[in-house]
Amino acid sequence: MKRIKVTLVGAGGKMGMRLTHNLHNSDYEMSYLEVSQQGIEKLKVKGISVSDAASVIPVADAVIFAVPDVALGKVTAEYIPQMRKGALAVTLDPAAALAGKLFERADIAYFITHPTHPSVFNWEPVEENMNDHFGGVAAKQSIVCALMSGIMEDYILGEELASAFYAPVLRSHRITVEQMGLLEPALVETLASTCIYVISEGLGEVIKRGVPAEAARDFLLGHLRIQMAVLFNELPGAVFSDAANKALQRGLKEFIKDDWRKVFEPDNVKDQIESIT
What is the CATH number of the domain that holds 124? Predict the structure, then answer.
């Protein structure tokens, strides 16, 4: 059976190295592209040599672009014209696609995927696996996948490839590119990261006011776990106490704006995407 040829662009970068870790010993016929000397040296440590783009891009069945959002426009403009007709271009984030930054070709397919990262409710049988907070090494994570253009065979190829480089994968969810934009940046970066950042700043405040740091951290993280378990229905039927609900309602009035849901409005999401690309 013919092996699928895959080229990984940005293989020695932060995200690229994570993908390289899983793809290096996969069943795919891999080629790696990297321009930074630091990235090239990292690949050498793993016994990987960098290929010549002109030799591998035109024969690849799939080209993965593991480069930052701000660079995707320039990088895809250089490499996508070299791809063979019918090949699959894979990106790891929806932002550049939604911002119209990807080089467009009508005769290739575009597939976008992103990891969910291991859930806070993950249970891993091996203790060390619990330290894989990012995913892609030992802890299970799910992935979201979107076919921006192409046919079902392209989606299947993309999903199988994503399941390999994000392994171990618990579940794969097929969604649209627009839905992926609602998830990131809107839900998990603009909204969730901001809320969690404020919580971390709150931890610093109570420590400044005299609470022992270790006690404050243990108290906060333990309460976060039970609060999330209740709110995300990990404990069916469990509810907050009357006192906790009163404190929650007070917090909503004091420092949460009534119009916070605007972060999910199409124009707002577009502005968020443009600001990071």
Answer: 3.40.50.720
